[in-house]
Amino acid sequence: MKRILVTGGAGFVGSHLCERLLHDGHEVISLDNYFTGTKANIEHLMDNPYFEIIRHDVTMPFFIEVDEIYNLACPASPIHYQYNPIKTVKTSVMGAINMLGLAKRIKSKILQASTSEVYGDPEVHPQTEDYWGHVNPIGIRSCYDEGKRVAETLFMNYHHQNDVRIKINRIFNTYGPRMDKNDGRVVSNFIVQALKGNDITVYGKGDQTRSFQYVDDLVKGMIKTMETGDDFIGPVNIGNPSEFTILELAEKIIDITGSKSKIVYEPLPLDDPMQRQPDISLAKKNLDWEPSVKLEDGLVKTIHYFDELLKSESK
Ligand code: NAD
Ligand code: UDP
């Protein structure tokens, strides 16, 4: 049994990670300031004596004795991370410094939840880990993209300078139950719109692409990354290579829900990447990992979750 700290543990991905780690027999501590996460996401874990929650902001130093740290604390949807961009940069950068300082002191392993956003609007397709990216450093997405890029820099520097045992995952678009229905991300937006019979808001022409990964696949990939030996640090892409246009996603969701919603077109947000698809050769080779959940199957589970949520809210 290991003692594991998950920052951002009350968020969408963090709550699934805490659940999985507890299921695997570990002691888990969730650290969260509840900016975008909620206690409701982890309520079902509260009775477990091996689960603990701590309200704390990663921009402030924190001390605890653990074997492993998963650093997920950071708002992830464009609406949330653009709400207070200075705070978003602080969370990524000061959060990384505080958690790396902790890992250095207690000699734990530490994994960074980095992102495909480090590739920006990519000119290389699919994206391999050796691609340096195409990011606008002063655009509206830069607080998130550049914050995550500096966090990767800090991880590498703490590793080379102080021998900290790091791992870096570059996570591609992930969806599933417990996404925040109001965070504006495309999968939750389209599902909620379809279930309510509202218009489905496709930004631009809908010809931009994303590759959607179901959350269970991501959690398995993160844990496999953490379990690698000290000679493997990444960065390693964790995503599902099946690529779809946003219009195809809208049509799939209409089809599965049987909704009468109509597709409407709205302006494309600034700096919205046109294409995104992970090359996962490195993950296959070093982690023996690849995603197994097809988009249709993951969408069915996610639609079921939102359907139940909307019904319970309307009672
Ligand atoms: P989320 O917003 O649901 O979760 C983030 C969690 O971090 C929330 O619980 C939030 O309250 C917490 N948090 C934010 N700022 C904090 C701070 N200063 N101190 C302490 N806690 C703080 O987002 P998510 O989708 O679960 O993403 C989790 C991580 O994975 C993020 O680091 C994100 O950048 C990364 N990621 C996610 C995706 C995706 O598609 N979901 C893709 C790439 C990377
Ligand atoms: N998008 C859309 N309609 C929506 C929400 C998002 O067409 O209601 C588009 C958005 O412009 C982007 C893609 O869907 O091209 C993915 O957006 P999301 O915010 O989920 O993630 P990210 O842009 O960070 O990959």
Describe this structure in words.
This protein is α/β, with parallel strands linked by helices. It has a domain at 3-179 and 214-240 and 278-292: NAD(P)-binding Rossmann-like Domain (Rossmann fold), CATH 3.40.50. It contains nine helices and 13 strands. It has helices spanning 12-23, 78-83, 85-106, 142-162, 186-196, 215-227, 246-257, 281-287, 295-314; strands spanning 3-7, 27-32, 51-55, 68-71, 109-115, 165-171, 174-175, 200-203, 209-211, 213-214, 236-238, 243-245, 263-266. It has a seven-stranded parallel beta sheet with strand order 3-2-1-4-5-6-11, sandwiched between helices. It has a two-stranded parallel sheet with strand order 7-10. It has a two-stranded parallel sheet with strand order 8-13. Strand 5 (109-115), helix 4 and strand 6 (165-171) form a beta-alpha-beta unit. The structure holds nicotinamide-adenine-dinucleotide (NAD) and uridine-5'-diphosphate. Residues 77-78, 173, 184-186, 189, 201-203, 208, 210, 246, 268-269, 272 line the site of uridine-5'-diphosphate. Nicotinamide-adenine-dinucleotide binds at residues 7-8, 10-14, 32-37, 57-59, 72-76, 80, 91, 95, 113, 115, 171, 173-174.
Any key phrases for this structure?
315 residues; alpha/beta; Rossmann fold; 7-stranded parallel sheet; two-stranded parallel ribbon; 9 helices; 13 strands; 39% helix; globular; binds nicotinamide-adenine-dinucleotide; binds uridine-5'-diphosphate
